[in-house]
Amino acid sequence: MIDIVGKRYWWFLLSVLVILPGLVSLAVNGLRVSIDFTGGTLWELQMSRTVQPGEVQRVLAANGYDGSMVQTSEDNVVLIRTKEIQEGSEAKNQLLTALQDEFGQVTELRLESVGPTLGTEIRNRAIIAVALASIGILLYIAFAFRNTQNPFLYGTAAIIAMLHDVAILLGLVSILGWLRGVEVDALFITAVLTVIGFSVHDTIVVFDRIRENLAHKVGETFEETVNYSVVQTLVRSLNTSITTILPLAALYLFGGETTKTFVLVLLVGIIAGTYSSIFNASQIVVAWENGEIQRFFARLRGQGRQSVPAGKGTRP
Question: pTM of the prediction?
Fold first, then answer.
């Protein structure tokens, strides 16, 4: 049988190596937010011919308006939502000229300032909703695993695996924002919430098999039981992920330009969610049950106390 649990420290190390560059990028560069959060300008144009949103986005990006949202409607009308464009400004005239050079005659229908569609209040509510959902996941898994020795441990491990996936996605978008100007928008939030649901679902499937095998005592030790359970669910998890990844890969390769970032985030998130469910969540449970996590933090506390010079850190 494949010894997945026995190599848990290698899986933890791989996760750290994947997450670390993204965390560094987040600390240094942060996230580029789109006009969904900042507001901007709504520009409605009528083209002389049918155009694709990706074609318009490329012209806008080439003239310093990357991250713009473009939609097309009937009668060759194009709706552009981008950062602020002043009426009568030189920047607007240059942009209009570039569009005309690329697509022919362009008629302006309206130009108006718009506020952010995802303001601070909605962002804060989303954070609260995710926090409440995490608490709900913890309580649900604790109830479902109430017959195990440490039911809250399973819920905590599932949340840690979920945060692992979110950290990877945030780091990815931060790096892409630095390299290619990718911005956080409403589609990114949708992708993250989708990945969270997928990750937690896959983790619960693995944990449920662990619970069943613990009841039937299929292994001599807890570690052997977990490893047997993970191997049992490995093929099912991989098959589920692959059937999701293949259409997403097709969408990324052959789909429209406007959905590429959204599909890429979903692709990376599904892969990360599958990995964390198999190689992180269950390994965290084993490391805790074996006392490895407790000993690690105990050593950290011991080193912290040793680093305090004698006579320091205590009151006379």
Answer: 0.78
